[in-house]
Amino acid sequence: MLTVGSIVIRVTDLEAQTGFWAEALNYEIREPSADDFVLLKPKDGVGPNVSLDKVPSPRMLPPRIHLDLYADGQAAEVERLKGLGAREVHWNGRPADADYIIMEDPEGNRFCVIDAGS
């Protein structure tokens, strides 16, 4: 049996991205961390780890993979994430009744905020 242990995101500014993702997901750093790699773990112990790997990587659009983050209060979460430095991505192909909002972190890594109440 397989389980997801960690999702790895390549980043340029490890310190800034650690701060963004830790705050966005309510995660904490699992020590020890390194100059080029940080593993974030859920504070409540529920869910996969998110690892940040400082490795140069060209940005691909559309991305081949992205995170879907489920939110009970989607609008409030989108605003909170914007306050942390995320940006909303507008896409003309998004259906009017879509339950997701496309966003990207401060380095342009895309993710969706899904309305968990839908």
From TrEMBL:
Organism: Populibacterium corticicola
CDD domains according to UniProt: VOC (cd06587)
Protein name: VOC family protein
Domain VOC positions: 3-116
SUPFAM superfamilies linked to this entry: Glyoxalase/Bleomycin resistance protein/Dihydroxybiphenyl dioxygenase (SSF54593)
PANTHER family per UniProt: CONSERVED PROTEIN, HYPOTHETICAL FUSION PROTEIN
Pfam family, one: Glyoxalase_6
